[in-house]
Amino acid sequence: MLKQKALIDVLGQVNTSGVDGSWLFNKDGLLLAYVGSEQKEVASNVSAALLASVWTALERRACDLRESILVLEDSTIAFTLVARTMLLAVKAHKNADLGMVRAKLHSLSTYLEQPILSISHDLI
Amino acid sequence: MSSKRKVLLMGKSGSGKTSMRSIIFANYIARDCSRLGPTIEVEHAHVRFLGNMVLHLWDCGGQESFMENFLMSQKDQIFKNVQVLIYVFDVESREFEKDLRYYQSCLEALLQNSPNAQVFCLIHKMDLIEEDKRDETFKKREADVLRYSELAATPLGERSNAVCQCFKSSIWDETLYKAWSAIVYHLVPNVNTMEDKLAKFGNVLEATEVILFERATFLVIAHAVLSPHKDPHRFEKVSNIIKQFKLSCLKMGSKLDSIQVRNSRFTAFIDTFTQNTYVMIVVPDGKVSAPMITMNVKNARKVFEAIETKQ
């Protein structure tokens, strides 16, 4: 079982010093949780779907894709695979240190890996 | 393990026994029932309920000549090994006293032949009574029925289950589902385990309500209410509405899989659950993530499948 509140608590922990949003969604682009400042132009579920399609497009080109970083006009989005079926993404301000953003992304994904694996493993 | 339960459906002719059976178990809709003719003698129907439980419905014709037969020559055959008797009264009947006397004789025969049977009475066709008089009429009829039940039961000593439960019902609204859900509730083993698990499941999801529906009939089998709600008839309304919707889906050649309803104050999910059930989850949050709920439902499925197979 996955508790929405608990998941939101965990995701919210990375939202410090420049990082202002984190998503967890599956490869189909369906959003499980978003924590962070509500974006003005794009709703969080739409951005999750966009990121998922970017991921699948990249995955087709590169085998064994681990992580990707999008550098945008005013922000950076880093995302990675968790538990084979889910994607974890964090969004940071463009001035944020990229190494810090990656470190946060990876420690969060390691933390989530086992729990999510155990619940999604049952489903297959 | 398959368990067979004999369910007797009795009552005066034209009181609506076959109609309600057709709506609940044979996917009729209420207005189709005008096509039904009178039942001759006994119609047997085997209904699979919750997968491995078979309800053996004996729909007994209600004309007086049949009734006499049932009570005299076929008494043993009819009233042996009965688990449930459902007796249907027509609320508008002009000869209610006579109906009651028949009821008393049936009950006596039943108690002699299957002393452990449970008895339920339906005061049917409530839609014919004006809305503000329904409660009053029902109370009066119920008192009569209970009085006659006691009359039949007292000569046989102390028996608590003969003093039956009465329900008001009508095929035109949700009361039919309420009555049948209550009856079925008594037939399903493990209901308590299921409700325990449902409550735990609801806690994890932070839901206000989790309801389990039987797949074919859409009757409520079990429910967990985690915070009170003001409408006591909501389950039956949902049963009624979703069943109609499911039938329309079938007409289009497609199968109902899941439904999601969302507004700013709540989200409701109806999803296929185990082989024999649908589950409905109400979460008091308009923004809750649907994939998360679906994932949790899938995870819970195994636990409930295990409970069902244990039956």
UniProtKB/TrEMBL annotation, chain A:
Organism in which the protein naturally occurs: Caenorhabditis japonica
Database matches in Pfam families: Robl_LC7
Example GO biological process: positive regulation of TOR signaling
GO molecular function: guanyl-nucleotide exchange factor activity; molecular adaptor activity
InterPro entries: LAMTOR2-like, Roadblock/LAMTOR2_dom
Signal peptide coordinates: none
Family, as annotated: Belongs to the GAMAD family.
UniProt domain Roadblock/LAMTOR2: residue ranges: 5-92
Listed name of the protein: Robl_LC7 domain-containing protein
SMART domains in the record: Robl_LC7
UniProtKB/TrEMBL annotation, chain B:
Pfam families associated with the record: Gtr1_RagA
Molecular functions (GO terms): GTP binding; GTPase activity
UniProt record, GO biological process: cellular response to starvation; determination of adult lifespan; negative regulation of autophagy; positive regulation of multicellular organism growth; positive regulation of TORC1 signaling
InterPro entries xref list: Gtr1_RagA, P-loop_NTPase, RagA/B
Keywords, ordered alphabetically: GTP-binding, Nucleotide-binding
Top-level taxon: Eukaryota
Enzymatic reactions: GTP + H2O = GDP + phosphate + H(+)
Gene3D superfamilies the UniProt entry points to: 3.30.450.190, P-loop containing nucleotide triphosphate hydrolases
GO CC annotations on file: Gtr1-Gtr2 GTPase complex; lysosome; nucleus
Family from the record: Belongs to the GTR/RAG GTP-binding protein family.
Protein name stated in the entry: Ras-related GTP-binding protein A
